[in-house]
UniProtKB/TrEMBL annotation:
It comes from Streptomyces lonarensis. GO terms for molecular function: nucleotidyltransferase activity. Gene3D superfamilies: HUPs (3.40.50.620). Residues 7-133 form the Cytidyltransferase-like domain. This is Adenylyltransferase/cytidyltransferase family protein. The lineage of its organism: Bacteria, Bacillati, Actinomycetota, Actinomycetes, Kitasatosporales. Keywords: Nucleotidyltransferase, Transferase. Pfam families: CTP_transf_like. InterPro entries: Archaeal_FAD_synthase, Cyt_trans-like, Rossmann-like_a/b/a_fold.
Amino acid sequence: MPHTVGYAPGVYDLFHIGHLNILRHARARCDHLVAGVVSDETATGMKGRPPVIPLVERLEIVRSIRFVDAAFVDTSHDKLEMWRRVRFDVIFKGDDWRGTPRGDRLEAAMATVDVEVVYFPYTVHTSSTQLRAALDALAAPTPGGAPVIRSAES
């Protein structure tokens, strides 16, 4: 009986329900799920700023999710390089990648090693980018220069 290894790369910053959904759905599609937690340096290169949560903490959070069988640091934009390390059969991404230049490149690269690319619905109502923007807005400086920190009651 074949043993399917799945790979779910991501920054997993400000871990939220969208991350959990991808990991849950990914685990349902494979026998062994490996999560690649993108390094701070790689994430900064991709997003233009470092993650809020340090790598060691993001890695520990992802490792603690029951759907994840193994997690390690993903240090490369090149998923073929990661495939050489993990030898996964299927890679999981949010469908915000589908039909984009980066998604097309991923599909072409994965086809060379017979790896299936599976897209899951992107959680539009919650994303790390939205959460980070909300945090930035809460800490925005006032005209006098001091940040405004709002409490839950404001």
